[in-house]
Specification:
Layout: H1 2-37
Length: 50
C-alpha cells in the first residue's frame, strides 16, 4: 500500500513540474515573440501616398 501512495505522490509531483515547466517555456516564447515583433517598427518610415 505504501508503494502505491509513493507512486501516486511522485506522479502528481511530476505532473505539477511538467505544467510549471510548460508555463515557463510559454512565457519565454511569448516574451521572445513580443520583442521580435516590435523591433523593426522604429527603423522604417511609414509609406505615405500624396
Amino acid at each position: 500500500m505504501l508503494i502505491y501512495m509513493l507512486a501516486t505522490a511522485m506522479t502528481v509531483a511530476m505532473l505539477i513540474a511538467t505544467v510549471f515547466g510548460l508555463h515557463q517555456e510559454a512565457q519565454r516564447i511569448r516574451v521572445k515573440a513580443t520583442t521580435k515583433r516590435f523591433e523593426g517598427f522604429g527603423s522604417r518610415k511609414p509609406y505615405r501616398h500624396y
